Amino acid sequence: MTLQEKVGSMFFVRPEALDTDIYYDSPAVLKSYSLQGVNDRMRETARVYPPGGIILFSHNIKDPDQLSQFISDLRSLPSKPLLCLDEEGGSVARLANNPNFRVPKFSPMGNIVASGRTRDVLEAATAIGDYVKRYGFDIDFAPVADVNTNPRNVVIGARAFSNEPQVAAEMVKAYLKGLQKSGVIGCLKHFPGHGDTQADSHFGYAMSRKTWEEIAGCEMIPFKAGIDAGAKLVMTAHISLPNVTGSNVPSTLSPMILQDKLRGELGYQGVIITDAMEMGAILRQYPVEDAAVMAIKAGVDVLLCVREYPKVFDAVMSAVRRGEIPESRIDESVRRILKLRHQSVSYGDK
After folding, report:
1. Active-site residue, from 19, 202, 260, 314
2. Can you tell me the distance from the alpha carbon of 266 to that of 310, in angstroms, rounded to the nearest whole number?
3. pTM: predicted TM-score of the whole model, two decimal places
4. Catalytic residue among 146, 196, 275, 301
5. For this structure, is 275 an active site residue?
6. Interior/surface letters 265-282, b for 16+ CB within 10 angstroms, e for the rest
7. SS3 for 54?
């Protein structure tokens, strides 16, 4: 692989990132573009800046016919990107909440757990995985492995399975098993746990004052269970842990959190992907190019939803060429990503 191809594999982007006529200050404005197909600008951008993955959101999806053509055209791009979406159940379900798709619709996972059993989560995840795979996706950014410990949390809530770490751990394993049965790659999110925060990292700084000992006895329990159950992807949270790291640096940019804790203590060997790099907790503190370089140096393998994709791509390339990021560091991530791609193909044969 060329350096360009290797760096490109480390970006999972919105389809709008490939259309150079689209610029957005906030993801909310993208709904007005209703980008639901591949155009020539996108093909040319993908040729020069080949992305490893594409994530679709609700506004990119109209109906089954449109989605089928869109996915076919995306797969024909030179880099053959992996195709991803967020389909957790509840309010975060790009397909089930679209009235044009006749698929099962589930309550938030926390509600299912409160009134049901582990088997109910397994059945829900299997059904979600079945239709996610049927409509052409490789990766579902689920399950939420957070523990919903803070009743003032405005972003997690019933998206989490429980406020009890052991209960959440059992449900995380069941959800992953359901996706795996369906041939879909799941993703544990949001490491090291977004359930104790009050602020929403979509909009700005979010933090937890817990010590690592407290986190190890709570938040790490479902993450460890998911890793032991074979999770291939872990998504980072842009939350700061000042009583762990001694700073306000978001976990996405922290070598201590990603390398010492996730890879070291938890023994995770799979792909680490960021939460969206366009979120306020990142962009209100760092230039987008600097944040991307910092994330890779911290141990991230895949950058999700960067704003100004070609500009950030070039910044990473420059950082490698000047030696700030060793190419051997890029190669570490690429090996993990290639393994993930191979597992996606294997899943697709099921």
Report:
1. 202
2. 34
3. 0.95
4. 275
5. yes
6. ebebebbbbbbbbbbbbb
7. strand
